[in-house]
């Protein structure tokens, strides 16, 4: 890519209030925006992100561990990422370490695309001009009428797929809520459901037998994210009954874990979060694994970033998640227009170079 080396990496933490809180204890998200300066004068801007826990720890990891170790290394992210992961993984192979690494990786990709005077998607090889988006919300705490109103907003906005939280203690309440959702959606729009790791294997089996009535397009995180054996068995049970596919990935942090999940048939759909896995470099590796295994890949959250990468994916018909009133542009967090636009359930890029993501 370049002969330049990294001269400096700086970071700062911002708290961005959510217009529509994700719960009593999630009223803001933490963004650690990063700035890299290269020896040839090039610059790049990236970020790390966490919705609730660990933002200060991510900032400390960048400032005290990543920045000193990055100085003098090549500005080629595909060479620098594995070297820094090896340097950091004594503190954990994933989690805080990979979230923090994303801050450097994204800034390096931004610098490379700016040098080429291209958006990142063009530099990586754009395969499509648009990608479908689905309406999503953190809505398990919504009263039934508020949930139905949210679904109506998505339908009116042109989405042909939505995702809704499940996991009430009584499955009868979940079913009542999903019936109401399906009534608004009609039979032809896709309904995905997300349990956010709330069930164990037997509860997941029982509840999904009931919820199969509303024809879910997938069940997301039905079990604890690291319960590989449980996902294998649940996948076997579902294949023999309702056929509901399992989607995981929001809380998997390395390409190794994604490979494990797909190799043993623990899930049929993967959802890497670009920041949580460590940036574009590992995201591309995960995408290659999914393509090799014939698995669907739908990026998790962050449509301003994941939407750009979805345009480059080999997988058929990736979906980009658009959480209601949570986009950086919608929250007024960006210093300039968003690099993507979602209208009528379809995401398109706007004119920009690099990542096109700079925070106020």
Characterization of this structure:
The model has no long low-confidence stretch (mean pLDDT 96). The relative contact order is 0.14. By secondary structure, the protein is α/β, with parallel strands linked by helices. The strands form two sheets. Strands 4, 5, 6, 7, 8, 9, 10, 11, 12 and 13 form a ten-stranded mixed beta sheet that branches. A three-stranded antiparallel beta sheet has the order 1-2-3. The radius of gyration is 20 Å and the shape is globular. It has eleven helices and 13 strands. Helices cover 38% and strands 19% of the residues.
How would you concisely characterize the structure shown here?
This protein has 360 residues and is of the alpha/beta class. The protein has helices at 55-70, 77-88, 96-116, 120-124, 144-156, 171-185, 201-211, 228-239, 255-263, 280-293, 303-310, and strands at residues 6-17, 28-38, 43-50, 131-136, 161-165, 190-194, 219-220, 246-248, 269-270, 296-297, 319-323, 340-343, 346-349. It has eleven helices and 13 strands.
Q: Measured on Cα atoms, how large is the radius of gyration?
A: 20 Å
Question: Which structural category do the helix and sheet elements fall into?
Answer: alpha/beta
* Largest sheet, strands/sense/barrel: 10 strands, mixed
* Overall mean pLDDT: 96
Q: What is the H/E order?
A: EEEHHHHEHEHEHEHEHEHEHEEE
Termini separation (Å)?
29 Å
Mass-distribution shape: globular
- How helical, in percent, are the residues? 25-40%
Count helical runs: 11
Q: What share of the residues does DSSP label as strand, in percent? A: 15-25%
Residue windows where pLDDT falls under 50 for at least 5 positions? none
């Amino acid at each position: 890519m370049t002969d330049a080396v990294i001269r400096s990496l700086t970071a700062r933490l911002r708290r961005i209030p959510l217009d529509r809180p994700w719960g009593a204890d999630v009223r803001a998200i933490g963004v650690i925006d990063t700035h890299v300066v290269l020896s040839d004068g090039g610059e790049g801007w990236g970020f790390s992100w966490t919705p609730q826990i660990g933002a200060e720890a991510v900032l400390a990891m960048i400032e005290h561990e990543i920045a000193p170790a990055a100085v003098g290394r090549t500005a080629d992210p595909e060479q620098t990422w594995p070297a820094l992961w090896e340097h950091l993984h004594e503190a954990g192979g994933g989690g805080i370490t990979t979230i923090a690494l994303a801050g450097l990786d994204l800034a390096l990709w931004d610098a490379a695309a700016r040098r080429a005077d291209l958006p990142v998607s063009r530099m990586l090889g754009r395969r499509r001009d648009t990608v479908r988006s689905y309406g999503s919300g953190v809505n398990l705490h919504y009263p039934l009428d508020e949930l139905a109103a949210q679904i109506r907003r998505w339908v009116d906005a042109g989405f042909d797929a939505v995702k809704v939280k499940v996991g009430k203690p009584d499955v009868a309440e979940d079913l009542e809520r999903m019936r109401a959702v399906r009534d608004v959606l009609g039979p032809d729009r896709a309904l995905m459901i997300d349990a956010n790791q709330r069930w164990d294997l037997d509860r997941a089996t029982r509840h999904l037998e009931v919820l199969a009535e509303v024809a879910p397009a997938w069940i997301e995180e039905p079990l604890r994210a690291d319960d590989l054996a449980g996902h294998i068995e649940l996948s076997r049970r579902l294949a023999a009954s309702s056929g509901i596919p399992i989607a995981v990935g929001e809380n998997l942090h390395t390409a190794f874990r994604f490979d494990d999940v797909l190799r043993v048939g623990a899930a049929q759909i993967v959802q890497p979060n670009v920041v949580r896995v460590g940036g574009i470099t590992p995201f591309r590796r995960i995408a290659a694994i999914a393509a090799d295994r014939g698995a669907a890949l739908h990026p998790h959250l962050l449509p301003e970033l994941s939407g750009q990468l979805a345009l480059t994916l080999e997988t058929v018909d990736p979906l980009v998640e658009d959480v209601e009133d949570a986009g950086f542009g919608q929250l007024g967090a960006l210093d300039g227009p968003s690099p993507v636009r979602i209208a009528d359930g379809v995401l398109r890029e706007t004119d920009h170079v690099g990542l096109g993501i700079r925070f106020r």
